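Consortium newsletter contribution from the modelling node. Members have asked for a concrete example of what our holo predictions look like. Here is one, prepared for the histidyl-adenosine monophosphate complex that several groups have been discussing at recent meetings.
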Amino acid sequence: MIPRLKGTDDILPPESARWRRLLRGFDDLAARYGYDLVLMPVLEATELFARGVGADTEVVQKQMYTFEDRGGRSVTLRPEFTAGIVRAYVEAGGTGVMKVAASGPQFRYEQPQKGRRRQFHQVDLEYLGEPGPRADIEVIEMSHRLLAEAGVPGITVHLNSIGDASDRATYRDLLRDFLHGVANELSPDSRRRMDDNPLRVLDSKVDKDVVAAAPVPLDHLGAETAAHFAAVRSGLDAAGIGYEIAPRLVRGLDYYNRTVFEVFSPAFEAAQSSLGGGGRYDPLGELIGSRLPVPGVGVAMGCDRIVAAMPDLESPRLDVFVAVAGAAREDVASSWVRRLRAEGLRVDWAGGDRSLKSQFKAADRSGAAAVAVIGDEWERGEVRVKSMATGEEVTMDIEEAVAWLHR
Ligand code: HAM
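And here is the predicted structure:
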């Protein structure tokens, strides 16, 4: 027996029912907000993430599945969607607005624990080509709605603005000065980063207490970024979406500017882990070689974590389980089952070569709302229908039964 790799999961029934609900919900949400489907390569050039996500980030330094392919190219299993989607937009000669939704596995070599997997699944939304705050608001609203519609309780949004590169020039000097002052107390990782990438230090979990008194980007926004952030806030207020300002939230990836956010729920408590996160990434296009700027904002939601925070639904998995009295009625049953499925009902059956008792057992296990028995009555144009909820059993005209199953 060869077991699965550490940090990977087999997602099987019955747990997979919640995955199906979540992924369908995402698909439906994306369509309602005008986001088209994109399917992205799992393998990308390593350079894309080194430059896009940032050579100095935890993801690029410690977590990527990088190897040389048979042609001698350095390739990486994607650790996230955003860099690849912006690459695709630029490569297709993208101009103007493109709103897209993606869903699929990501790979990060992490220390596995609950909700922290080496292969995990994200659903992702990217709103490209729109510099205005309406894009930021829409993406945050959708992140909230996805969770609310999935039944996740107690959703909170943490929101911050980290400004633009121009705002950060003076702010970085301030932060650097502060960090130099407390350098003795910082971890080796943070000390190494404090000159080249001081913002990363603000995000450090181990140095949390030391950086608690550090200056924050929000207090050093330029006029334009401050106005952008104010507009995002009032848009969220108008949408009725509550949020907390999180002045030290900078996110773990280097491509962000202006708005950043993360979403939490008490139903997923593992070590302050977010159910989703995102933000604006106007610098990303140029980081990966676009000659034109590509304004954009997006979010990725972690499905493994969301599913852990979703309630189980009591609702039946099938509308009807069809049982057949006698192998001779197999063909009749098969074509009736086909008709019901074609009409959109969720139907399963086990076949007439098994005893009725064993078929009823299968019906019980199937989680169907009703069992329909094809027996002697069929010849008179009738079928026996039993409601699993009430145990009530009625013999009905076949067409009447079909209407009843559709109710
Ligand atoms: P991220 O914060 O790295 O952002 O990941 C987003 C979400 O993916 C997290 O909030 C979490 O739910 C989930 N996640 C991350 N790592 C793991 C893991 N090892 N195991 C399970 N779940 C995990 C991004 O990936 C950005 N691309 C988001 C974005 C889109 N920004 C703009 N557009």
